[in-house]
Amino acid sequence: MNINYSFKFQDGRVIDFRVATESPKVSSADLMPAWTRLEHCQCTNCPLKKGDVEFCPAATEILPVVEVFKAEDAYQKVDVTVTDKRRTYFKQTTLEESLRSLLGLKMATSGCPVLSELKPMALDHLPFATNDEFIMRSVGYYLLQQMFAMRNQEEPDWALAGLVQRNQKLQLVNQALWQRIHAVCKGDSNLKALLNFFSMASSVSVSLESQLRKLQARMKGES
Fold it and tell me: Is residue 27 part of a domain?
């Protein structure tokens, strides 16, 4: 499935990106900058080996976005249209929020063995998700995985300990990716977007219980 992002700037520029959620990722080594090499700011929890893989899958996947938006102001307003084969989303928002959504999608489908744990959510991509929506979707998908584990006579994790550990690993990846692109970004749009994505992952690993209490109150109709 292809998911298309179209950015319309206030000066009339239109920039489009297409993300193939299931196609294999192919990169040309001749076109890859140094910051995309695996050993450059490699994640401390990366299971890939330099002798087997030359470039970081997540870095090469976000490269086109980083290059296009590296000099842009994070807080400028843009009209963003997101389309897939099922529906169309539209929002007038900041470049930061829309890039957080696009970069999150690209990272989850990049082939990175750590970020790939987010791929089931990416296949049902929700652009511009709020923090509450991210928590609800993360918990919901994880609980489905535990139900399937139970059906397969495996031990389910109803306490969500594995979900917290998963997002702790995601934080390490986000921090390393931020370090990778920091030197090449003259503007702050990509950096702000990654930090925003990082804060959402942090809300699962650091304060999941308090986030769940907020959702419980909402489900009871409490303010």
Answer: no
- Rounded to whole angstroms, how far apart are CA atoms 170 and 45? 9
Stated pTM of the model: 0.85
* Closest residue by Cα to residue 89 from 133, 58, 119, 59: 133
Count Cβ atoms within 10 A of the Cβ of residue 13 and give its class: 0-12 exposed, 13-18 middle, 19 or more buried.
exposed
> In this structure, which amino acid lies at residue 83?
T
- Look at the block and give the residue holding tokens 């082939």: 111
Q: Are the beta carbons of 170 and 115 closer than 8 angstroms? A: yes
* Within a domain: 28: no
Count of residues making up the chain: 223
Rounded mean pLDDT for each run of 10 residues along the chain, 223 residues in total: 95 95 63 90 92 92 89 90 96 92 91 91 91 89 96 96 88 86 72 69 71 81 68
